[in-house]
Amino acid sequence: MSQAVGNTALAYARVWHVVDARQRVLGRLATNVATTLMGKHKPIYDPAADCGDYVVVVNAKDILVTGKKAEQKLYRHHTGHPGGLKEINFANLMEKDSTESIRKAVSGMLPKNRLRDVRLNRLMIFDGAEHPYEANIIKQHGAQSKQ
């Protein structure tokens, strides 16, 4: 008798999670979100299969960083032109787009393969507490719970 779960629709069903980012540390939040996007919390996890869930992050503007990272943490990208290195620190990025810091942190914690962009498409981040996916949410993760 086989004990394999198999490719059943129920095993691969995607669940919607909502995570409240208020007063949560950026790195610890990002590791939990990346784990959920990959599906590592499921018993059917396979690195080559896309079996992760949807994650909605609310209150992204209230995220915390430890130490002096608010002034010292730099996000760099290159335009591709000579002298095109662009830098922005965490505080300025939060003023410009508070959701982007969470997206970059989660992106850095996902495996660098073909599934990375597909998994990031299942991540929805909002500045405030309101979001349009209220009917889909099955699991709530508050500021005190660990996801």
Automatic annotation (TrEMBL):
<keyword id="KW-0687">Ribonucleoprotein</keyword>
<dbReference type="GO" id="GO:0006412">
    <property type="term" value="P:translation"/>
</dbReference>
<comment type="similarity">
    <text>Belongs to the universal ribosomal protein uL13 family.</text>
</comment>
<dbReference type="GO" id="GO:0017148">
    <property type="term" value="P:negative regulation of translation"/>
</dbReference>
<dbReference type="GO" id="GO:0003729">
    <property type="term" value="F:mRNA binding"/>
</dbReference>
<dbReference type="InterPro" id="IPR005823">
    <property type="entry name" value="Ribosomal_uL13_bac-type"/>
</dbReference>
<keyword id="KW-0689">Ribosomal protein</keyword>
<dbReference type="InterPro" id="IPR036899">
    <property type="entry name" value="Ribosomal_uL13_sf"/>
</dbReference>
<protein>
    <submittedName>
        <fullName>50S ribosomal protein L13</fullName>
    </submittedName>
</protein>
<dbReference type="GO" id="GO:0003735">
    <property type="term" value="F:structural constituent of ribosome"/>
</dbReference>
<dbReference type="GO" id="GO:0005762">
    <property type="term" value="C:mitochondrial large ribosomal subunit"/>
</dbReference>
<dbReference type="Pfam" id="PF00572">
    <property type="entry name" value="Ribosomal_L13"/>
</dbReference>
<dbReference type="InterPro" id="IPR005822">
    <property type="entry name" value="Ribosomal_uL13"/>
</dbReference>
